[in-house]
Automatic annotation (TrEMBL):
GO terms for molecular function: homoserine O-succinyltransferase activity. The lineage of its organism: Bacteria, Pseudomonadati, Pseudomonadota, Gammaproteobacteria, Alteromonadales. Gene3D superfamilies: 3.40.50.880. It comes from Alteromonas ponticola. Pfam families: HTS. Substrate binds at residues 163, 192, 249. It is found in: Cytoplasm. This is Homoserine O-succinyltransferase.
């Protein structure tokens, strides 16, 4: 598919090197079609790395997609040049009046912070409420999934002493759900988080269906029946080395992290990690774009209805 990205975005060279079709704004303007409008609220510290990961997964569809990168606040990111943020990211206030076919909200490395302790929590809740009025389908990843569940349904995560980190086997619980179309009955996905929501807590929310789960890491994917909200507690976007880089970072910081489970051969960090989640991660994003976004969104985004099927009144 052609992903429409800003001119000179660093991810462009990486994607073209992988034979992924990414077109610039000037070329996209010559095509007479209605592209999908997808926003990405990127909360990860290394913005450029996350951009590449997500754009790669958005590439496997014949649809044209316009991508807007959105920042949560004005604070300069620790691991991304401010010049990059100014060149390629929108302030939320600049896009607040816009309607989107799809929105992706990434995870965030907030460790043991309670939600109310997060410096941008007020901004986050405003964006969550805004998404229910302005977005056809929102995909929440890792921390964002737990944050949205807490905001909309009052379900608070448990903060674990030991990080859930590694590559875990999952079972498809709803084989007829279009989000998992083409999935094997058992598949793998990476996790890297301290937060955990028990399956009984998920089941207590009647508006949601658990569609994939792991005995080791718990609920992986849950979705609303109307397809407006998808919660993914892991990181299907991670590259092969991402968990390794996180592990090395934590080691260098003196945190004595647990070796990521089911990741290194013989559980030895000196061995090259085994990647066994890439195909299902790509398929998850493709299915979301096709069945939860493209097949449900109105042609005229001004006709987008408010998502009223959440307990919290966001009107």
């Amino acid at each position: 598919m052609p992903i429409r990205i800003p001119e000179y975005l660093p991810a462009q060279d990486v994607l073209l090197g992988e034979n992924i079709f990414a077109m610039t704004s000037s070329r996209a303007a010559q095509q007479d079609i209605r592209p999908l409008e997808v926003g990405i609220l990127n909360l990860m510290p290394n913005k450029i790395e996350t951009e590449v990961q997500l754009l790669r997964l958005l590439s496997n569809t014949p649809l044209q997609i316009n991508v807007d990168f959105i920042r949560i606040d004005d604070v300069a990111p620790k691991n991304t040049p401010q010049s990059h943020m100014e060149a390629f990211y929108h302030q939320f206030s600049d896009v607040a009046s816009k309607k989107y076919d799809g929105l992706i909200i990434t995870g965030a490395p907030l460790a043991h912070l309670q939600y109310e302790e997060v410096k941008y929590w007020d901004h986050m809740t405003s964006i969550l409420d805004w998404a229910n009025r302005h977005v056809q389908s929102t995909l929440y990843l890792c921390w964002a999934a737990h944050a949205a569940i807490y905001h909309f349904y009052g379900t608070r995560r448990t903060l674990l002493e030991n990080k859930v980190c590694g590559v875990f086997e999952h079972r498809v619980l709803a084989p007829n759900n279009e989000l998992l179309r083409g999935f094997d009955p058992c598949f793998y996905a990476p996790h890297s988080r301290y937060g955990h929501i028990d399956v009984n807590q998920w089941n207590s929310i009647p508006e949601l269906e658990i569609i994939a789960q792991s005995e080791q890491s718990g609920v992986y994917i849950a979705a609303s029946e109307d397809k407006r909200m998808v919660f993914v507690t892991g990181h299907p976007e991670y590259e092969g080395q991402t968990l390794h880089e996180e592990y090395c970072r934590d080691c260098d910081a003196g945190l004595s992290p647990t070796v990521p489970a089911n990741y290194y051969p013989q559980n030895d960090p000196d061995n090259e990690p085994v990647v066994k989640w890439r195909a299902h991660g790509s398929l998850l994003f493709t299915n979301w774009l096709n069945y939860f976004v493209y097949q449900t969104t109105p042609f005229d985004l001004n006709q987008l209805a408010v998502n009223s099927k959440v307990k919290k009144d966001t009107k």
